[in-house]
Amino acid sequence: MNIVTLLPFIVLIGAMFLMTRSAKKKQQAAAQMRNEMQPGTGIRTIGGMYATVKEVHDEAVLLEVAPGVHAVYAKNSIGAVLADDEYNRIVHGTEDDLNEDDTPVVPDDASSLTETDEPADASADSPIDLGKKDAAGTDDAEPKKTDGESDAK
């Protein structure tokens, strides 16, 4: 056998090895994140719900979904452990790091994007006639018949 015939198989096996290796690293990082959860931290579930961790068990986590509302979730359902400032910004709407002077001004409509400083042409404001003209250019020709009309008597 020639090495050229084996080369595609070697490349395929190498690519599969690299893909499984990176997936395994992601799984280990997620498991480590879930194991380092402490009561009182904010989390986001894989379903997109934000909650606060109350108790951590071996395979389950007790979450406070709303004040006084508790739910038990599997550890695998925790999508991300959030930093305190990020959790407060998302859940409570507090933004300590942004001042009112730093926020960009966003217009309510697109009119500010189309306005120009130079005056518009008068011809640009004239109405546009989109009606069809006859080939001869006269409008006194007999109107065309529409559905339901005929000359039969």
List the keywords.
153 residues; alpha+beta
Task: Tell how many strands the DSSP assignment holds.
Answer: 5
Question: Regions with pLDDT < 50 over 5+ consecutive residues?
Answer: none
Q: Nearest-angstrom radius of gyration? A: 34 Å
The separation of the N and C termini measures 91 Å
Average predicted local confidence, pLDDT = 79
**Strand residue content:** 15-25%
Order of strands across the widest beta sheet? Answer: 4-3-2-1-5
- By DSSP (H or I, 4+ residues per run), the number of helices equals 3
List the helices and strands and how they pair.
Blueprint: H1 3-35, E1 42-45, E2 50-56, E3 60-66, E4 69-74, E5 78-82, H2 84-91, H3 111-114
